[in-house]
Amino acid sequence: MEFGYVMVFVTDVQQAKQFYQDILELPLIHEEPNRLVFSMGPQKLVLFQADKKTETGDYSNEARTVLVFHVGDVHNTFAKLQEKGVQFLHTKPTEARYAAFTDPFGNVHEIAEKSNE
């Protein structure tokens, strides 16, 4: 078995495109009416539209993820993303050199300085 890709569920594909492409500056490599695919180095991030009014048992309405984006300088990236309107859950990066934020759909992600581990 090998890793395929990360999928995050969103409720508005166009709003997701604006956030992930324009604000987080991820390269968009494929677009469909209900799905976006972004390049994340050697991996892919797939954003898939999930309607909150689907039948019970559709896990897309319950699934939660945390994407961690490695950055060179967490303080600089924090300030840059704040200027673009990103809502952080921390008032500043933690001593562990990370900060969590949400996308427009409530998905929690983090920026973190890469450790030597």
From TrEMBL:
Pfam families: Glyoxalase
Domain of life: Bacteria
Ranges where the VOC domain occurs: 2-114
SUPFAM superfamilies: Glyoxalase/Bleomycin resistance protein/Dihydroxybiphenyl dioxygenase
Name listed for the protein in its UniProt record: VOC family protein
